[in-house]
Amino acid sequence: MVDLSVDIGGLTLKNPIMPASGTFSEELSEVFDLELLGAHVTKTITRGLRDGNPTPRVCEVNGSMLNSIGIPSKGVGAFLEKVVPFYRQYETPLVVSISGNTEEEFATLCAEVSVDGVDAVEVNISCPNIEEDGKAFAIRPSSTASVMRQLRAATSLPLWAKLTPNTGETSEVARAAEDEGANALVVSNTLLSMSIDVRTRRPMLGNLMGGLSGPGLKPVALRMAYQCARATRIPVIGCGGVSTVEDVVEYLIAGATAVQVGTATFIHPTIMPRLISELELWVENEGLRSVRDLIGSVIDDEQAEAVVFMEAAP
Amino acid sequence: MVALDKIDPRAEMPAAKIAELDLQVLANTPVNSEYRQLILRAPKDLLESCRAGQFFHLLCPDAGGEHPYLRRPMSIYGYYPDRGELHFLYKVTGRGTRALGELVPGDALGVVGPLGVPFRIESDWRNLVLVARGVGLATLAPLALEAQRRGIRVTAICSARHPDYLMSIDNFRAMGADVVTITDAEGTSSTQNLRAILEDLVAGGAADALYTCGSNRMLKVVQQVARDHDIAGQIALEQQMACGIGMCHCCVRPFRRDGVIANLRVCREGPVFAIEEAIAW
Question: Which of A129, A152, B57, B91 has a beta carbon 3.0–4.6 Å from B112's, enabling a disulfide?
Fold first, then answer.
């Protein structure tokens, strides 16, 4: 029997497989037993009501997906009243994803969701739809540091900072989040993208642009997960295009302590429990006792820092 | 009349369990120049959990040069627990349905379902009226089957551009339905004529409930007749979907509910809605 448990900044997960925010909800309990998962991560909420973006909200592109859902939210009240109690029936840790338009609103919400039954707060400082022109806190180290400072002051729960690939300063942003008290980094959110119907000449998404997710995003997010693991001492949770057990193992070898599975659940709703059993088998077949033995085992021949933290294609 | 929003159609269903599995293709044949019928072999317990109005989320194959990534939602055309068959009727229009068209007997097709809120048939309803056009005929067909199983009378008003595209008429007749056909080519498909047909049925006491799918114009007429005569009406709606289960909030449409215009998920709060909630598109 191999050990699949991992530690994310003091929070022990029975296995390193969890859903990515926005691709998971109570409804999935009708498909499989949610107790199997390493953690539960809820869809990002905002303090107030949000309607979300105009449709179409998703489109497919070459084996991947673009979305601009726009974080429809029923607000913090409904969330605390209905969603948190649902997940209390499980032993599995509950991670609540939040977002805000301003630092103050963000921090207030962070305090409001720090209630019994919530084990960590994932702060979505990266959603490309929410700020004007796709800008987000995690694009720059300074805005990352500033918002993380306020969030840190607002809760004693572990804080997971969800980073964005829409930055040229990955390691600096990661270090800024770590310096201001992040307990883990989720790497990453979607990549700002666009698709146009060449017949109608109209953008495929109602919001013009959206976030790329799925297999097409994986090499980008994997590169970032590697850089973040090298740049900081806090756990990294890989997120982006995980669809097979090889993808899980690849993220762990790159330095991630756990992974989030997102778009793959839309294609195969039972993918997460399958990945857990396949990971167990993989670790066993490798002759390892613990999945932790894979973490950060990439052989990168002690490359120079300039190569490790490169921000342009060589 | 019982207020529609007070009824949860799921309440009378067995514990809803959503399955993800591969089913074997038994047949995939053209019905006319536009539509094809797909027949899958399915386990009895899966078929017994199906209800008219529900849908499956299909993993269209990489075939014919098409590589659809997302699943495609498709309403159930027929479910036969005794024969172990699940039927779909689809129009080849895009990447997903072109790929579906390539399936041959013996192939496997990944399905997730059954999904969504089904049509509701109240126990005291004796006469159902179905109003459908195009692929809406497929969605309403299993309702006629369910009505037949319960010994309820059905009138099916089938609309199409041309008599050649009137699918499912034989199917509806085989299920004991009275079939009324209206077509553009014959000049019988106008909203005025549809309205007159419905008014006649209402006047003759042959319309305890109205069901529709597949046409904006029909929605408006059915909505009006339902309101004027205080008859329960239901509509099945379509929307592009990603997850099909309720997680992604991609398939929302605006509805009139609880005195406001609310974005509801077609996959979860629907695809069947009370006719008065629907907003013409």
Answer: B57
